[in-house]
């Protein structure tokens, strides 16, 4: 089922995440893919809520870049990722790494990925969107 403005086909994203040693390490150590960038005096990032900031986008580029790559490959670069499709891929990469979590925790991670993807889209969007012909 296609939804206007939403990319529902993210198949292969979990494999890209699983192929990244940084993502796998985060899942094993923190049970999360996206982490809050550590403050200047902290050495370790924090698990939990991740703010929608450019600093966090850069810190979590290992998660967001594969999503952007999949979206471009699927011809959906102008869309946003479907939360249910993201949830399925987040669940798969966690299961592949032996991290079984509650549906709520998985859903929270999927939303975090989508929020950070929104930060990327806002950064790359033109000041004036293209005029329709």
TrEMBL record:
This is Uncharacterized protein.
């Amino acid at each position: 089922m296609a939804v206007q403005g939403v990319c529902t086909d993210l198949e292969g994203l979990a494999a890209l995440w699983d192929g990244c040693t940084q993502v796998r390490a985060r899942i094993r150590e923190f049970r999360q893919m996206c982490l809050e960038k550590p403050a200047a005096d902290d050495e370790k990032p924090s698990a939990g809520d991740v703010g929608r900031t450019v600093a966090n986008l850069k810190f979590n580029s290992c998660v967001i870049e594969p999503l952007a790559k999949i979206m471009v490959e699927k011809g959906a670069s102008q869309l946003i990722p479907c939360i249910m499709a993201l949830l399925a891929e987040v669940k798969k990469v966690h299961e592949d790494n032996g991290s079984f979590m509650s549906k709520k925790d998985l859903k929270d991670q999927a939303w975090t990925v989508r929020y950070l993807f929104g930060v990327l889209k806002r950064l790359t969007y033109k000041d004036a969107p293209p005029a329709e012909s």
